[in-house]
Amino acid sequence: MLDIKSWTDSDGVQHKGSVAGKLEEFEIIECTSCDFKHAIPLPKFEDLEEVYTDEYYSIEKPLYIERYIEDKAWWSLTYEQRYSLFEAHLNLKGRSILDVGSGPGLFLAKGKELGWSVKGIEPSRQAAEYSRTVLELDIEETFFDVNVAKNIGKFDVVNLGEVIEHLSDPEEMLRISNSVLNDNGLILIVVPNDFNPFQSLLNESCGYAPWWIAPPHHLNYFDKDSLSRMLDRCGFDVVHNETTFPIDMFLLMGDNYIGNDELGRSCHKKRMNFDTNLSKNPILNTKLKKAFADLDLGRELVTLARKRPVV
Q1: Burial letters for 258-296: b for 16+ Cβ neighbours within 10 Å, e otherwise?
Q2: Is 281 strand, coil or helix?
Q3: Which of 5, 25, 237, 265 has its CA 20 to 30 A from that of 117?
Q4: Do 271 and 243 touch, CB atoms closer than 8 A?
Q5: What pLDDT is recorded for position 277?
Q6: What's the pLDDT tens digit per position in 72-91?
Q7: CATH topology of domain 43-307
Q8: How confident is the model at residue 62 (pLDDT cuts 50, 70, 90)?
C-alpha cells in the first residue's frame, strides 16, 4: 500500500501525495497539487535566506568556487554550447541575458566574451564578490523577486541554472522570469535529473541509499515531463530538451564515489574528458544528449522554452 502524506502551507494550500523518499524530518511526495515531487514541510523564505546569503559557499560547498575555477575550460565549453543553443533560437542582433543565481559568474563571463549584454542576480556574498571584483560583471547581490523584476528591465534570455530545485515556490520564479522576458524570449532551466532510472536501479537492486534526496537544499525533484508541464502553466513552450552526462554510470561500473571526494573528483575528470572529446563531433554530441533525455537519463535536465505570445 502506498504511503500517502499531506501538509498544508502557510497560504492554506494542501500538498498531498505518495511518499517517494525521506530524510530526517522531510518527506518527498509526489504532490498532486504541484504536479511534481517536492519536500514537505517546505521551508519559508526566511529560513532559506541566511543559507544562500552567507552559508552556501562557505559551509555547504566550501570548495565549489575553487573547483569551479579549476574546471574553467570545461565550463567554458559547456557554456559556449548553451549560448549557441540560444542563438539558434533567436533572430536578434543585440542579445541580452539575465542569469538568476549567477554564482561565481563564469556563465556570464562567457556570454560577455561572445558579445552578449549580461547581468546577474546572486544572493551569495562570496560568489557575487568574485563575479564583480575578479570577472568585472554586473551583479546585483540579492534574491530575484517581484520587486527586483519591476526595475531590472527586459531580456532576451533568462537563465536558471540549478536554481528552482532550491525554492519553496519554483512556479513563482518561472512567472517572475516570464515578466522580464522580451516577446518570444527564452528561458533555460537546468535542474538535477533525480529519481532517474539509473538511480532507481542503484537504489532498488544494488544496495545504494537514495543519496540524491537532499532537503532542505534540494526541495524539488523534476523529470522532463513534470518540468515541461510547469513551464506550460507559466506561459512557456518547450523547444529543446537534453541531459548532461549520466555520471551515475560510474556507480554501476563499481566506482562508488558517494562520500568519497577523491574518487568523485576522479570520476568527474573522466566525465570532463568525455564531454571535451565528444564536442569535437557536434552532431553526435547533440544527438546523444537528446537521446539521454528521451531515456530520462543524465545527471542534469537542460530544458529550453520560449515565452508564449499573449493572445
Answers
A1: eeeeeebeebbeebbeebeeeeeeeeebeebbeebbeeb
A2: coil
A3: 237
A4: no
A5: 98
A6: 999 999 999 999 999 999 97
A7: Rossmann fold (3.40.50)
A8: low
Concatenating the DSSP letter of every residue in 243-296 gives E---TTHHHHTT---TT-HHHHHHHHHHHHHHHHHHTTSHHHHHHHHHHHHHTT
pTM (two decimals): 0.94
DSSP 55: I
Q: What is the pLDDT averaged over residues 151-158?
A: 97
Place of cell 574546471: 71
- Residue 269 grid cell: 575528470
The rounded radius of gyration (Å) of the Cα atoms in the chain is: 19
3-state secondary structure of 28: strand
Q: Are strands 300-307 and 236-243 parallel, antiparallel or unpaired?
A: antiparallel
End-to-end CA distance of the chain: 45
264-273 tens-digit pLDDT: 999 999 999 9
Full 3-state SS string of 140-155: ECCCCCHHHHHCCCCE
- Number of helices (H), then strands (E), belonging to the chain: the values are 12, 12
Residue 54 has pLDDT above 70, yes or no: no
Residue 254 cell numbers, joined: 563499481
> 3-class SS at 44?
coil
